[in-house]
UniProtKB/TrEMBL annotation:
<protein>
    <submittedName>
        <fullName>Uncharacterized protein</fullName>
    </submittedName>
</protein>
<dbReference type="InterPro" id="IPR013096">
    <property type="entry name" value="Cupin_2"/>
</dbReference>
<feature type="domain" description="(S)-ureidoglycine aminohydrolase cupin">
    <location>
        <begin position="114"/>
        <end position="156"/>
    </location>
</feature>
<feature type="signal peptide">
    <location>
        <begin position="1"/>
        <end position="20"/>
    </location>
</feature>
<dbReference type="InterPro" id="IPR011051">
    <property type="entry name" value="RmlC_Cupin_sf"/>
</dbReference>
<dbReference type="InterPro" id="IPR044697">
    <property type="entry name" value="UGlyAH_cupin_C"/>
</dbReference>
<dbReference type="Pfam" id="PF05899">
    <property type="entry name" value="Cupin_3"/>
</dbReference>
<dbReference type="InterPro" id="IPR014710">
    <property type="entry name" value="RmlC-like_jellyroll"/>
</dbReference>
<dbReference type="InterPro" id="IPR008579">
    <property type="entry name" value="UGlyAH_Cupin_dom"/>
</dbReference>
<feature type="domain" description="Cupin type-2">
    <location>
        <begin position="215"/>
        <end position="281"/>
    </location>
</feature>
<dbReference type="InterPro" id="IPR017627">
    <property type="entry name" value="UGHY"/>
</dbReference>
<dbReference type="Pfam" id="PF07883">
    <property type="entry name" value="Cupin_2"/>
</dbReference>
<dbReference type="GO" id="GO:0071522">
    <property type="term" value="F:ureidoglycine aminohydrolase activity"/>
</dbReference>
<keyword id="KW-0732">Signal</keyword>
């Protein structure tokens, strides 16, 4: 597919951007985003993937993976999640140093406390969850998030159900990161020139954190200026929109609900298409010495 369609997909991606030559205005900072397609079983209008026997857009290669909704395998009550379903998308089994998975919390569901060495980041895609931190109850809704540091005794429950994206890893530093929570659009927009996308980071950039979670917004026709190759690992969930993602020499049409694994040094590039803004959630390891860190 990549050799045949790569140049054609690049041409399609560029058509929407030619007029602005990557100088378009940044996506509107007050734009409204909907994540309804992440957990929905309904896909593009006129196309029902469930009626195509044997078909999947998912690809798992040595240097990247595209994991699409029709390939998710849901398991009940696993890995410390009670009255919940989990679908693991990225794990250390194939080389990453982190896990990324989706959780469907049902009514009266909860998560067990973590192994003391593990840290967890939870992003609420839909529904509501309740966190109890130092005896204080915190309500989180769609677009909210919470970070649980290693050794945390905090609890996570849902009375009415929720859909989550979760990142976990074994903490690799000697610091003491603190519990964090907030709302995505309350985070400051950071400078990214010469890029034109809107970037927010959901965790502090301070040295005690060994990863961060980025939220990146693109208007249709906008694309990454830098064709990135770097040592950092990524796990990505497309929350809204559609576009073309280049991974190595492969070019993939992607849409809301798709997840991507990017290991170190894979060539990566994104162009937003369609008629609505793209937004994706991105895990990135940070503040680590490339020589001493796996």
């Amino acid at each position: 597919m990549s050799k045949v369609w790569g140049p054609a997909l690049l041409l399609v991606a560029c058509l929407g951007a030619v007029l602005c030559d990557n100088q378009c205005e940044n996506p509107k900072k007050d734009a409204q985003y909907s994540y309804e397609h992440v957990f929905s079983s309904a896909r593009d209008k006129g196309v029902d993937f469930w009626d195509l026997p044997g078909y999947s857009r998912s690809v798992y290669a040595e240097d990247h993976a595209l994991l699409t909704p029709e390939s998710r395998v849901w398991a009940p009550n696993t890995y410390g999640w009670h009255n919940s379903m989990t679908a693991h998308l990225i794990t250390p089994a194939k080389g990453p140093h982190f896990t990324m998975y989706l959780v469907q919390m049902k009514q009266d569901s909860k998560a067990s406390q973590l192994d003391p060495k593990v840290e967890r980041f939870v992003f609420v895609v839909e529904g509501n969850v309740q966190v109890k931190h130092d005896g204080k109850a915190i309500d989180l809704a769609a677009n909210d998030y919470a970070y649980f540091p290693p050794g945390s005794n905090d609890t996570l429950t849902s009375a009415k159900g929720a859909g989550l994206c979760v990142f976990e890893r074994v903490y690799s530093k000697k610091g003491k990161p603190a519990f964090q929570h907030g709302t995505t659009d309350d985070r400051p927009v950071l400078p990214v020139a010469p890029e034109v996308f809107v970037l927010r980071k959901l965790l502090p950039a301070s040295d005690e954190f060994d990863f961060n979670i980025h939220v990146m917004d693109f208007e249709p026709g906008q694309y990454l200026y830098v064709k990135e190759i770097h040592y950092n690992q990524h796990g990505l969930l497309l929350l809204q929109g559609q576009g073309i993602y280049r991974l190595g020499n492969n070019w993939y049409p992607v849409q809301a609900g798709d997840a991507i694994w990017m290991p170190p040094f894979v060539l990566q590039w994104y162009a937003a298409l369609g008629n609505q803004n793209s937004r994706y959630l991105l895990y990135k390891d940070t503040n680590l010495d490339p020589l001493l860190s796996p």
